[in-house]
Amino acid sequence: MGGKFNRAAPIEKLRSYKVYLPFLFVLVLSVSYSIFAYSLRSTVNDEVVGTYEIKSILVNNEAIEISRGTLGNHPMMFLEYNNQAVLSINDSLYFGSYYTAKDSLRIGFRDSVIGGIKLAKGTLDENSITGSTDEEVNFEIIYQRVDGDRNYLNELYR
After folding, report:
1. In angstroms, rounded to a whole number, what is the distance separating the alpha carbons of residues 78 and 82?
2. Buried b or exposed e, range 41-71, using 16+ CB within 10 angstroms
3. How confident is the model over 11-70, as pLDDT tens digits?
């Protein structure tokens, strides 16, 4: 004996699994991620996702003064593919989420945005979102969609 182990035949067979298992894992992982990405992409409304320059915010028909945010040279709103909403105004970033159904929009932020907007629902128009907050405060966000070279978001996912 002398402290040596005799290798049995089943252990030799396990070695072949050690060779193929990493490749099988990578194959299964990449196929499952592709299916996940395809299903996520199919739920996205490309007409809503994008970068928007905010022209003005009205709360109870009164204009709220806004300035440029942390991102961009102007007050900006980003509606992203993963249903994340980012509002960049007054040197701050406000993160939240959104949900769309036809022409309606529900949007919620983690922190209260200017004018007390934390949870809101409204309708999407060509250049504005009009609606009310959870506290029945009327608001309107007037924006212009940013296209072309200034819009990194729409080109990022293509």
Report:
1. 11
2. eeeeeeeebbbbbbeebbbeeeebebeebee
3. 555 567 777 888 888 999 999 999 988 887 777 777 788 888 888 888 888 888 888 888
Predicted model pTM: 0.66
Q: What angle do CA 145, 53, 119 make, to 5 degrees?
A: 100
* Integer Cα distance of 148 and 77 in angstroms: 16
Strands (E), the chain: 50-59, 62-64, 76-79, 84-89, 92-101, 104-113, 117-124, 128-133, 138-146
Contact between 117 and 92 (Cβ < 8 Å): no
- In the chain, the domains with their CATH numbers are 50-156 (2.40.128.20)
Of the candidates 48, 44, 122, 28, the residue with the CA atom closest to the CA atom of residue 81: 44
Average pLDDT over residues 82-100: 86
pLDDT (0 to 100) of residue 158: 44
List the structure tokens of 148: 């072309």
Over its C-alpha atoms, the chain yields an Rg (Å, rounded) of 25
DSSP 68: B
Phi, psi of 119 (to 5 degrees): -130, 125
Burial (CB < 10 A; 0-12, 13-18, 19+), residue 153, is middle
* Mean pLDDT, the chain, whole residue set: 79
